[in-house]
Write a structure and sequence with these properties.
five-stranded parallel sheet; 32% strand; 2 domains; single chain; five-stranded antiparallel sheet; OB fold (Dihydrolipoamide Acetyltransferase, E2P); Rossmann fold; alpha/beta; 7 helices
Length: 247
């Protein structure tokens, strides 16, 4: 049976013990590798262990756990199950791409459903990652992005540019829609390294097939086919010229 390494981030020991009891009773595939009670300790253990799943209380000794979601840079492959007494924070949690939101007192049935959802997401991400890596060596025609229920296949030619949003990446597409992926921009830069993509800024990766003009004034901008202007980092300008064979 596949196991999923997990961390409990909960400042109330009683609540933590109840959660562990439920997990041992009905979710034996969950392997608890750590348990912490403060924001600093949470950031440290997530940096060191990179678990599959975290069980996260939203208030830790007077601090908000949203600090963990905003500061940690290693959660792109981690499923986040919020366990809280405050249902009013659910919308904010889902904006941080939380997997699920379980209200205290914990219902075993509700907890099992959340874990099932997390495991399904992990399988989808693994499938998407495998497909992308298999094709990346010679350039790829399509890119797989895992959502909560599906793996969406996007044609690479339809991507205008990718934008970093912390540990997530926003895909800007030719039909003026966007997609959010829970992987960082650097990973996509590697996957698309043999396609005609160039990282004009630490937070922007452009499909150069959609580039129209480069403007040197005011620090440098690139115009793409959607008529949007994207800033070029000064330090990226020489390598961009090399990429375009202008030097």
């Amino acid at each position: 049976m596949e196991t999923f390494n997990s961390v409990i981030i909960e400042d109330n020991k009683t609540h933590s013990e109840i959660l562990k009891f439920y997990l041992s009773k009905s979710c034996s595939e969950i392997n608890i590798i750590g348990e912490v009670r403060t924001v600093p300790d949470a950031l440290k253990i997530l940096e060191e262990t990179r678990p599959h799943i975290i069980f996260l209380d939203l208030e830790l000794q007077g601090q908000s756990s949203f600090e963990i979601l905003e500061q940690s840079t290693n959660l792109e492959n981690t499923e986040i199950i919020i366990i809280s007494s405050h249902p009013e924070y659910a919308l904010k949690a889902f904006k941080h791409l939380a997997t699920d939101y379980v209200i205290k007192p914990i219902s075993l049935e509700r907890l099992i459903l959340a874990i099932k959802k997390a495991k399904n997401n992990i399988e989808l991400k693994t499938l998407a990652s495998s497909k992308n890596k298999d094709e990346s060596k010679n350039g790829i025609m399509q890119l797989a992005i895992a959502s909560t229920e599906t793996v969406e296949i996007i044609t690479v030619d339809k991507i205008l540019y990718l934008e970093s949003d912390g540990r997530y990446t926003i895909f800007h597409l030719a039909d003026n829609t966007t997609r959010i992926a829970s992987r960082n921009l650097g990973e996509y830069a590697d996957l698309l390294s043999h396609n005609n993509f160039f990282r004009i800024h630490h937070s922007i990766l452009v499909n150069m097939n959609h580039a129209i003009n480069i403007y040197k004034k005011d620090g440098g901008y690139i115009e793409i086919s959607s008529k949007k202007f994207l800033p070029i980092s000064k330090r990226k300008m020489p390598s961009l010229y090399n990429f375009l064979r202008l030097k």
